[in-house]
Amino acid sequence: MSEPLRLTDQKRAAILAAAIAEFRANGFQSTSMDKIAASADVSKRTVYNHFPSKEELFAEILLQLWQRSLARRDLPYRADLSLREQLLALVAQKLDMLDDDNFLDLARVAIAETIHTPERAQAMVAKMGEREEGLTTWLRAAQADGRLRPHDPAFATHQLYGLLKAFAFWPQVTMGQPRPSAEARQHIMTTTVDMFLGYYAQPSPTGT
């Protein structure tokens, strides 16, 4: 049985929940620390004790959403499984995160803030890419195992995720298109992975 949260942790959780609601409803510019404090039923001083600025609060929300979507899945490289099978699982993990309503709404807020004040938003948007290291680590391990061509794992990570986002992130964020259906999602996954392996996979008599 989990222990009850300390009062300070309860207040931090309340601030984060209130901030998510405010940012989603009003955007970054129109949301103030005063509004967040009122919504969380805490003092403004309490908000600043936990988060020194609105930018840091927003960045923390993005990071937590990202971590929450990936924390349940630890997919290390396995030499006994095909590359295709493992990559499909990693890609499905990524699409699960992109399917989160909170993440999509807050991504819109972050992108809008980047357009209006790029110098201030750079750190926030950078947080959205920090959790892509999992795939980079996997690619590095597969490369060390001789099953992938020599390449820059970080570049290949962005390349693979870029293919996914072209269908399952940017159309939804920028044009309000619906999320891909189950059938479309499967097609995106398989074609993306097959294209990626078509270039990066080392020839093997047993396949990938």
TrEMBL record:
Keywords: DNA-binding, Repressor, Transcription, Transcription regulation. It comes from Chitinimonas viridis. It holds the Pfam family TetR_C_7. Residues 9-69 form the HTH tetR-type domain. This is TetR/AcrR family transcriptional regulator. InterPro entries: DNA-bd_HTH_TetR-type_CS (IPR023772), Homeodomain-like_sf (IPR009057), HTH-type_TetR-like_transc_reg (IPR050109), HTH_TetR (IPR001647), Tet_transcr_reg_TetR-rel_C_sf (IPR036271), TetR_C_Proteobacteria (IPR039536). Residues 32-51 bind DNA.
